[in-house]
Write a structure and sequence with these properties.
Elements: H1 6-11, H2 22-29, H3 32-39, H4 46-53, E1 59-60, E2 75-77, E3 80-82, E4 86-88, H5 101-111, E5 116-118, H6 126-131, E6 137-141, H7 146-160, E7 164-168, H8 178-182, H9 185-190, H10 193-196, H11 200-204, H12 207-215, E8 222-227, E9 231-233, H13 238-243, H14 251-259, E10 263-268, H15 271-279, E11 284-287, H16 301-312, E12 317-321, H17 327-335, E13 340-343, H18 345-354, H19 356-377, E14 390-391, H20 394-398
Parallel strand pairs: 4-13, 5-6, 6-7, 7-10, 10-11, 11-12, 12-13
Antiparallel strand pairs: 1-14, 2-3, 8-9
Helix pairs in contact: 2-18, 5-19, 15-16, 17-19, 18-19
Length: 401
């Protein structure tokens, strides 16, 4: 048998047996500024931590002495058949973490029979990402660059065959990500040489990453945000552009007219906003707090999920992202009514550690986790999961008033 390529060996068992095992590998490979961009959250990172911790409040209620010869992990999202009950969430500019970036993540998702969501703030053209995978691809929309740029990218995504549109509604401004400020991310991206000097030693101490980054062309402009008369938007302009292009419910009218396909409202944390999304024409809502990267001290996604599920009453699909690091997290979300779960950092750590091999390993780990959890629950398929398989804390119920 031929030896595994180096990237595969780096993330193979027993060195990597959980998603968390890939985090230190990513930390070692990336400069601190890039790792903290991936790993960090807003302000005191209360929501970042709580997103993961809140899953611990849910406990399982297994059916014992049940023989499960085979589990069925299949589900559907926006009419797309998925072999797994989770997809890869949009993560901004993964090309900075590994030169293959979004195309590699989409390819790994497709090989696993699941979907990939591409961020507007991506390093590879959306057409190349779609061509890289056999699975469904969804496009996540920020209105950076103005309406004309957004209309153009929606038309490109529609022609390329994207299966749905995720409209992010929780970014009227960029969150205060303190790690990025301390690490000089802004200076490294856009400052002059003197501005960069205090932050260069850590970058230079990661020569493998730096060589790959420079050979890939360094910080490229955003190929999917093309401003008429100006060309692709520079990465450094994104923060300012977000503040000038807040998404409102009124915008859903022209977005629907431009897209003419299924729309997911991403960033819903309350029953009220879930109902507004339905009224605005969304066919799915994604319960999300942006991975704890926007407003700090909001509810953990999993804690907000039951309220949103109750509010929509089965009218639309409910997705969830935030804090998912293990297969049991995915199963708990499905038990509480999520149709599908989005995983972001869970695969991004793998991407940063070993490119496509790392993403593939993350998917393998989560798939095995979900399969094993169903067997231990005495449940044959994800379609059979419901609230009878978990105990929900009384405090969660009482907090809804």
């Amino acid at each position: 048998m031929a030896p595994l390529p180096r990237a595969h060996r780096k993330v193979a068992s027993p060195r990597v047996v959980s998603v968390e095992d890939m985090r230190p590998l990513a930390r070692r490979r990336l400069p601190k500024a890039v790792f903290d961009y991936l790993d960090g959250g807003a302000e005191g990172e209360v929501t970042l931590r709580e997103n993961c911790r809140a899953f611990e409040d849910l406990t399982f209620r297994p059916r014992q002495a049940v023989a499960v010869a085979r589990t069925d992990l299949r589900t559907r999202a926006l009419g797309q058949d998925l072999a797994l009950p989770f997809m890869l969430a949009p993560v901004g500019y993964t090309r900075m973490m590994h030169r293959d970036g979004e195309a590699a993540a989409a390819r790994a998702a497709g090989k696993a029979g699941t979907g990939y969501c591409l961020s507007t703030i991506s390093g590879h053209p959306l057409e190349d990402v779609k061509a890289a995978t056999a699975g469904p691809v969804f496009f996540q929309l920020y209105l950076v660059g103005g309406r004309a740029a957004s209309e153009a990218v929606l038309e490109r995504a529609r022609k390329a065959g994207y299966a749905g549109l995720l409209v992010t509604i929780d970014t009227p401004v960029a969150g205060m990500r303190e790690r990025d400020h301390r690490n000089g991310m802004k200076e490294l991206i856009s400052g002059g040489l003197l501005d960069k000097v205090p932050f260069l030693p850590n970058v230079l101490s990661h020569p493998r990453w730096l060589a790959s980054f420079l050979l890939d062309g360094g910080l490229r402009p955003l190929p999917n945000v093309v401003v008429p008369g100006q060309g692709p938007l520079a990465l450094l302009d994104v923060g300012a552009a977000l503040a000038e292009t807040t998404v409102t419910w009124a915008d859903f009218t022209w977005i629907r007219d431009c897209w003419r396909g299924p729309i997911v409202a991403k960033g819903v944390l309350s029953g009220d906003d879930a109902r507004r999304a339905v009224d605005a024409g969304a066919v799915a809502v994604s319960v999300s707090n942006h991975g704890g990267r926007q407003l700090d001290s909001v509810s953990a996604s999993i804690r907000a999920l039951p309220e949103v599920v109750a509010a929509v009453g089965g009218q639309v699909e409910v997705w969830l992202d935030g804090g998912v690091r293990r297969g049991p997290d995915i199963v708990k979300a499905l038990c509480l009514g999520a149709n599908v779960v989005l995983c972001g950092r869970a695969y991004a750590y793998g991407m940063a550690a070993a490119g496509e091999a790392g993403v593939t390993r993350a998917i393998e780990i989560l798939r095995a986790d979900v399969d094993r959890t169903l067997r231990l629950l005495g449940c044959r398929s994800v379609a059979e999961l419901d609230r009878s398989y978990v105990d929900v804390p009384k405090a969660w119920e009482l907090s809804k008033g």
